[in-house]
Design brief:
This is Gfo/Idh/MocA family oxidoreductase. Keywords: Oxidoreductase, Signal. One of its GO terms (molecular function) is oxidoreductase activity. It comes from Flagellimonas hadalis. By secondary structure, the chain is α/β, with parallel strands linked by helices. The protein has two domains: about 120 residues, NAD(P)-binding Rossmann-like Domain (Rossmann fold, 3-Layer(aba) Sandwich), CATH 3.40.50.720; about 180 residues, Dihydrodipicolinate Reductase, domain 2 (2-Layer Sandwich), CATH 3.30.360. It contains eleven helices and 15 strands. It has a nine-stranded mixed β-sheet with strand order 14-13-12-11-7-10-9-8-15. Helix 3 links the parallel strand 1 and strand 2. The longest helix is centred in the first third of the chain and has 20 residues. Bound molecules: nicotinamide-adenine-dinucleotide. The site of nicotinamide-adenine-dinucleotide (NAD) has 21 residues, from helix 3.
Length: about 375
């Protein structure tokens, strides 16, 4: 099994430059040429862990504009099990070593990277270099530098890039955005967002290993709370201050257990987020000059639930969020529909994550943030 190191990440980036030069001589020769003639895009999942197994692959049985065409795995037994279960032909099955041969496979239009966080950059860049559109799971990488490298590689290869931020495709989150945009509850003054679960499993899991995860609760769940704070106000923050709390250092040897952070927004709105691997929390609350709304749960696989100060329940029929998300990305590729979770969104969140860690390292100091208005907002 291949683990990314700083050295092989740099090699991939260096190869990316060369690959990009080749690709620029024949722009859009691979993915763009074939994808646009297709009715349904073929997706290859890279990394067949729990998210691919229990969410993405089942959702791909119901998607309208894409389907499960291939797999990339480091585990031989999974090749047969997945081939049998989903009827995947042998020519569409890859491992981490021969993955780059996917460039020659016309069945595969999109590579969806569902690996531990420190491997996102390497495989997203290799996918782009192979001429495939890319969906990258959250968090986009383990540093802003990696996010830039992914964005760059996709631009140079002329392929589309989307984040695995499923909530942007589901109706409760879209309703939140509508409330904010339409000022249904006046001007937003305050947002509170929580994304956390209590981790008690194997202490050797990759999520608790900084070299693979890049960090703890903040990298894993915290990005959802950051996201909620942003779509709950409709603004990117202009500063963040943060604090870290630890109660089980023997379990969380290498990664953050609980982090709380406070945001200021350009309008004067303020926000408070909490994320943890030590307690359960899953909600967002937004208060405006003429009322409030909340979602609880706000960021799990659903069904979500919400209500407002107008005494209304927010209620939508439940559908697989992953199905909606992958179809939205396919419609972006096939029909030029808006990219609801573009690469810039993943990069923006990583910039905020890095600022949160910086604030903690400086004893909670306020760290200024300077985003162009709307930077990282999806379509
Ligand atoms: P998982 O541990 O269940 O699966 C990880 C997969 O990566 C496994 O198949 C494993 O064999 C493979 N792998 C390859 N190299 C590895 C290495 N060196 N160490 C460990 N595993 C290695 O994880 P998961 O829950 O499927 O998460 C995968 C990615 O998907 C993560 O980036 C996570 O943040 C993201 N995710 C997103 C959502 C979402 O709602 N968008 C939900 C769950 C996970």
């Amino acid at each position: 099994m291949k683990t990314i190191t700083r050295r092989n990440f740099n090699t991939v980036i260096a190869k990316g430059m060369g690959g990009a030069a080749l690709l620029s001589a024949a722009p859009f020769a691979c993915a763009m040429g074939t994808s646009q003639d297709k009715k349904k895009l073929g997706i290859a999942l890279v990394g067949l862990g729990s998210y691919s197994t229990y969410q993405l692959a089942p959702a791909l049985q119901d998607t309208q504009h894409c389907y499960l065409a291939g797999i990339v795995t480091g585990t031989l037994e999974k090749e047969k099990a997945w081939a049998d279960k989903y009827g995947i032909p042998a020519k569409n099955i890859y491992n981490y070593q021969n993955f780059d041969d996917i460039a020659n496979n016309e069945d595969i239009d999109v590579v969806y990277v569902v690996l531990p966080n420190s491997m996102h950059a390497e495989f997203s860049i290799r996918a782009a270099q192979a001429g495939k559109h890319v969906i990258c799971e959250k968090p986009m990488g383990i540093s802003v530098e990696e996010c830039d490298a992914i964005i760059d590689a996709c631009k140079k290869a002329g392929v589309k890039l989307g984040m695995g931020y499923r909530l942007h495709s589901e109706p409760y989150t879209q309703q939140v955005k509508k409330f904010v945009k339409g000022k249904t509850f006046g001007d937003i003054q305050f947002v509170s967002a929580e994304a956390a679960y209590r981790s008690t499993g194997n202490p050797d899991q990759w999520r608790l290993d900084k070299s693979l995860s890049g960090g703890g609760a903040l990298m894993n769940m915290g990005v959802y709370a950051v996201q909620s704070a942003i779509y709950g106000t409709g603004e990117n923050p202009i500063s963040v201050s943060a604090q870290e709390f630890s109660t089980r250092p023997e379990y969380f040897k290498d990664t953050d257990e609980t982090i709380m952070a406070q945001f200021e927004f350009p309008s004067g709105a303020v926000g408070n987020i909490s994320t943890s691997h030590n307690f359960n929390a899953n909600s967002m609350y937004v208060s405006g000059t003429s009322g409030w709304f909340q979602l609880q749960p706000a960021n799990n696989y659903g069904p979500l639930s919400g209500r407002t100060s107008k005494d209304d329940e927010i209620k939508f029929p439940h559908e697989s969020q992953q199905k909606l998300q992958m179809d939205d990305f396919a419609k972006h590729v096939l029909f030029g529909e808006p990219n609801k979770a573009p690469g810039d969104m993943g990069k923006r969140d990583m910039m905020i994550v890095e600022a949160i860690y910086e604030s903690i390292s400086k004893g909670g100091q306020k760290i200024p943030l300077d985003f162009a208005p709307g930077f990282g907002f999806g379509g």
